Amino acid sequence: MEMESRFRYQPVDLIVVGAGISGINCAYQLQSELPHVKFTVLEGRNSIGGTWDLFRYPGVRSDSDLRTYGFTWQPWPYSHPIAEGSLVIQYLRTCVSQHGIDWYIQFKHKVLSMKWSSKTQRWTLIVDHEGLRKEFITRFVFLGVGYYDYQIPRKTTIPGIENFKGKVLHPQFWPDKYDYTGQKIVVIGSGATAVSLVPSLAKKSSVTLVQRSPTYIRYFPTHARAALRKAAAAQLPESVSVDPHFTPRCNPWDQRLCLSPDGEFYKASNSPRTHIAVEMKDGQVIKADAIVTATGINMQMGGKIDISVDGEVKKWKGRMVWNGLMLQDIPNMMFAFGYTNGSWTLGVDSTTSILIRLWKLMENRGVAAAVPRLPEEAALETVRFWPCSPRTCRRWRRTCRNTVALGRGDRGSPLSPTTCMRDGGDITTGLEFLI
Ligand SMILES: Cc1cc2nc3c(=O)[nH]c(=O)nc-3n(C[C@H](O)[C@H](O)[C@H](O)COP(=O)(O)OP(=O)(O)OC[C@H]3O[C@@H](n4cnc5c(N)ncnc54)[C@H](O)[C@@H]3O)c2cc1C
């Protein structure tokens, strides 16, 4: 049962939820493009940076070119285009303090629910602040809450793991002071996390990588499948074959490629301290002091915020996504979802630019609310979360089944705003404007 809110605040024009890349970028653009708009940023954690503050495992770093990952308004300042997580968070802190964005952020403010009233044409947000319930009123909500569950990572089923006497770690919650020097560590997984984690761990410990389905490791950015396989083969030790260990089921760039600067992953796999294994159905035994389940994140759209419109609960699932920005029948709410096969920032930058355009348009026309509507003649069709191989897709769909709307509007891509919309194209088709 929801507790009664004791703290009510002066209404604001817009609330940004989340102070990661998306929220910070939105706050910057709002203060520079719409200085008269009153807004605040509500962040559930006690720090900025989202992903880059949460993930602290050894070797955590960017996968994409930071010249495009950095904000357009604050160029990435370092010469090396790939950066460790600590450098990304340092960059974000500089951006926030240099541009006065920290002034807008209210930390430890976790949004629990948002309720739209057509009568007042306002959202009421119920927010948890260290056990207190606060109430915020606003015209518009921008969700920069990321795309995964911060509390529950993607679990893997390892029968008998409960009997394992060593440490079981997940990269999402790496313990601050864990000393793994001289330890035998098994890393389960084949994604970007495993690829960056293994070389770092191997500097001080003996590592075995256990993978069910391999990935591409990018050594030169633009190589396609064959070239990637060839490059992998050339750098692997004789004991490790490309097939099946480095032959993913999907094509390069179906997902963002795992990057291994200077081939560090391959160098580590040549080290006597690193071993690679595939699904040990054969009864193979690997001794370990610690198991790292680098099995990924749990997809979660909308930051677990309950949404209702005039008392009716609105779920994400099955709802048409209007140009990767807004949800069918939910007024004045936009969400940020960046590019997945390019730098995330480029995508969320387009999103915010469209928000600014929409805001100006609504102001000029004296409009109170914009609501995406499914045209009568349009059929709701489920589409892939993003283009990828059938197997990967099945996995994404399974992961997302209860959380993500897989709908298609009358035009546009369901999960990425078009650059045309950002650059002056039509932003009104599919929206109903309420006065
Ligand atoms: C290890 C790793 C490496 C990556 N490398 C790259 C890369 O190289 N290039 C790239 O493009 N992408 C990369 N990504 C993807 C990365 O997540 C995005 O690039 C980007 O950081 C996402 O930013 P965001 O602000 O949208 O979301 P997040 O970083 O997830 O931030 C969301 C924020 O919202 C807050 N929040 C959530 N729900 C609520 C709520 N209900 N109330 C209040 N606050 C809430 C969270 O606390 C968090 O601070 C990587 C991801 C990982 C995990």
SS summary, helix count: 11
The fraction of residues in strands falls at 15-25%
Approximate helicity band: 10-25%
The assembly state of the depicted protein chains is single chain
CA(first)-CA(last) distance: 34 Å
Q: Kindly report the CATH topology of the largest domain.
A: FAD/NAD(P)-binding domain
Identify the CATH homologous superfamily of the largest domain.
FAD/NAD(P)-binding domain
State the CATH class of the largest domain.
Alpha Beta
CATH architecture of the largest domain: 3-Layer(bba) Sandwich
- Structural class, by secondary structure, is alpha/beta
Give a list of the ligands: flavin-adenine dinucleotide
The parts where pLDDT drops under 50 for at least 5 residues are 275-279, 385-414
Largest sheet: 10 strands, mixed
Q: How would you describe this structure in keywords?
A:
435 residues, 10-stranded mixed beta sheet, 5-stranded parallel beta sheet, FAD/NAD(P)-binding domain, 11 helices, binds flavin-adenine dinucleotide, single chain
In brief, what are we looking at here?
The chain is α/β, with parallel strands linked by helices.
If you had to describe this structure to a student in words, what would you say it looks like?
The strands form 5 sheets. Strands 1, 2, 3, 4, 5, 6, 7, 15, 16 and 19 form a 10-stranded mixed sheet that branches. A 5-stranded parallel sheet has the order 8-14-9-10-13. A two-stranded parallel sheet has the order 11-12. Helix 1 packs parallel to helix 9 and helix 5 (192-202) packs across helix 8. It has helices at residues 21-33, 51-54, 66-69, 85-98, 192-202, 225-235, 242-245, 264-270, 344-365, 390-400, 419-422; strands at residues 7-8, 12-17, 39-42, 105-106, 110-117, 122-129, 132-143, 167-169, 184-188, 206-211, 217-218, 258-259, 274-278, 290-293, 306-309, 312-313, 321-322, 326-327, 333-335, 369-372, 431-434. 24% of the residues lie in helices and 21% in strands. The protein is α/β, with parallel strands linked by helices and 435 residues long. It folds into 2 domains: 3-150 and 299-434, FAD/NAD(P)-binding domain; 161-293, FAD/NAD(P)-binding domain. Residues 17-23, 42-45, 50-51, 55, 60, 62-64, 69, 110-111, 144-146, 150, 192-193, 303-305, 336, 338, 343-344, 348 line the site of flavin-adenine dinucleotide.
